[in-house]
Design a protein that fits this description.
Length: 338
């Protein structure tokens, strides 16, 4: 499966854009639009994790090397993140901070934000940055998903390294155990990021390993999953509804090759850049134009989309794409979007 034989680039970019749109409501102090019992942003993150599980499983089984697998993940996550964090601390922060520039750069809090480079430690606030906003002092609310994503990379790599992924039942058993535990032990709406999003990652991985079973039946299986998910949503069984509908749409639509949509990424894969740059740019734009009128909401959204997409394009062509050129060779040809 090559890049232009599927719609995954389009689905990921759409999901990143919906996260931006959803967050824009929160940044203006408004409730985020909801779908299936979760915000648009929450559903979009579930889409990301489902697609990630699908593609990352493909990457592992094409080249089951622990070190090469992890190095590919490092090259995909860290270079773009490092540049974004440095841009936030050294450029955006001093421009929007209410503190004097000298005080900003001598504050320990400024340099403590660099903990975000560890991925597992979120950056926290920056001195005088976005204070008094509806999302008070929140610099980048999107970064919380990256530690979760990296943990599941590690879990999959460890399972593979110890040989468990050679057994066809390993991923389905882990998935079912996790789903049953969450559905029976946790209160509805309880946020346990690694476990809850892990369901979607594992669903994607299982769908990848069972393609020979469901792909010939996709014409009726995917609509059936969607229909069942809608019924469950009406019954307010939202967690089950999300599992069914998100997996059906993310993988079902993603793995098909629709005219035009399948070539959506021919100029680059901008979804990661959109995702990591959007929130601080939206906060800066909203601070600049204000958030006390409806027209400012729509103007801010348009400006945020434009600036974020521009940063994502630059990030892809000057950072991410160049970093991925250092990917180690695989035993077999690996698709470029892995």
């Amino acid at each position: 499966m090559t890049r232009h034989q599927n719609n995954f680039d389009f689905v990921r970019l759409l999901a990143a854009t919906l996260v931006l749109v959803s967050h824009h409501f929160a940044i203006h102090g408004l409730p985020e639009p909801a779908l299936l019992g979760a915000s648009w942003g929450g559903i979009s993150v579930q889409v990301f994790f489902t697609i990630s599980g699908y593609l990352i499983a493909e990457s592992w089984f094409r080249d089951p090397s622990f070190t090469r697998f992890l190095w590919r993940r490092v090259l995909r996550i860290w270079p773009g993140l490092v540049v974004m964090v440095m841009f936030t601390v050294l450029v955006l922060g001093p421009l929007v901070s209410s503190w004097h520039m000298a005080d900003y750069f001598t504050s320990p809090q400024t340099w403590a934000y660099l903990k975000a480079l560890k991925v597992f430690a979120l950056g926290g606030p920056l001195p005088g940055v976005f204070e008094g906003m509806p999302q008070d002092a929140v610099v980048n609310a999107s970064l919380w998903t990256l530690p979760v994503e990296v943990r599941w990379y590690l879990i999959l790599a460890v399972l593979g390294a110890i040989g468990l992924l050679r057994r066809s039942y390993t991923l389905p058993v882990v998935l079912m155990g996790l789903v049953i535990y969450i559905q029976t032990q946790w209160a509805p709406g309880e946020r346990q990021d690694t476990m809850v999003l892990g369901q979607f990652f594992l669903i994607g991985a299982v769908l990848n390993r069972t393609q020979q079973i469901w792909i010939p039946r996709a014409a009726w299986l995917m609509p059936a999953a969607l229909f069942t998910g809608v019924i469950l949503a009406f019954c307010e069984a939202f967690s089950w509804a999300q599992l069914l509908t998100v997996s059906a749409v993310a993988v079902g639509v993603g793995r098909t090759a629709t005219p035009y949509l399948s070539r959506f990424g021919r100029y680059g894969d901008f979804s990661y850049g959109v995702y990591i740059y959007a929130f601080p740019i939206q906060q800066a734009v909203t601070q600049w134009i204000g958030h006390d009128a409806e027209w400012k909401f729509w103007l801010g959204l348009a400006l945020s989309l434009g600036v974020t997409y521009a940063m994502a394009v630059l990030s892809w062509h000057f950072i991410e794409k160049r970093a991925l050129s250092f990917k180690p060779a695989s035993r077999t040809q690996t698709a470029s979007f892995l």
